[in-house]
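Data card: per-record layout.
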Amino acid sequence: MKKRGFTLAEVLITLGIVGVIAALTMPMLVGQSKNQANATKLSSTVSNIENALSSVVAKEAEEDLLDTELWGKVGTPDDFVDELENYLQCTYVEDIYGDKNIRKLNKEAGDTPAGDAYRLKSGAVMFISDSTNSEDADFIATVIIDVNGAEVPNTYGRDIFFYKLGAKGFLYPYGGEKVGGNYACTLDSDGMGCAGKLLAEGYKMNY
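The structure for this 207-residue chain is written out next.
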């Protein structure tokens, strides 16, 4: 019995279908890859910041950051960064985003991160605010981390993450059990609680 092969038309139709499927799925796969890369970078950035700040406390043999020479300079960014560079390679920077838009996870407009900004060697930017009048006595500042600086997506929960800084130099994520408030991490939320979700799920960006 004579075997029948594929006709040219059948091959072209099949390739066309494969091409359409690839065109539909590739952007999603690329987006997922970038999101996971940001989550991984967040993990290392948090670790580097905590190691640096806890080292300040240990080196100066103080009880907490509030009593260190470093923290005494937090209100003057240039002096603060000069001291911080002994523990963490960074530079004081201004106007990170220019005219770029900041978005919440639900795609609504978000606020530009508040505070003095410090660019780390990795390219991540750490914002420090509320350093003297924290709303919670357990924390001494608010820290916001943008893992890729001004690069897109500039979105809460994707590359911008929110923390409270404890007196010993450790970061506590919004959405985590130690930080009060109703901070969520769902696609219809602002995304301010995503740092807590990532920590709880081993830095897997499953949203």
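Known properties of this structure: The first helix runs from residue 8 to 59. Residues 32 and 87 are 33 Å apart (CA to CA).

See the next section for split statistics.
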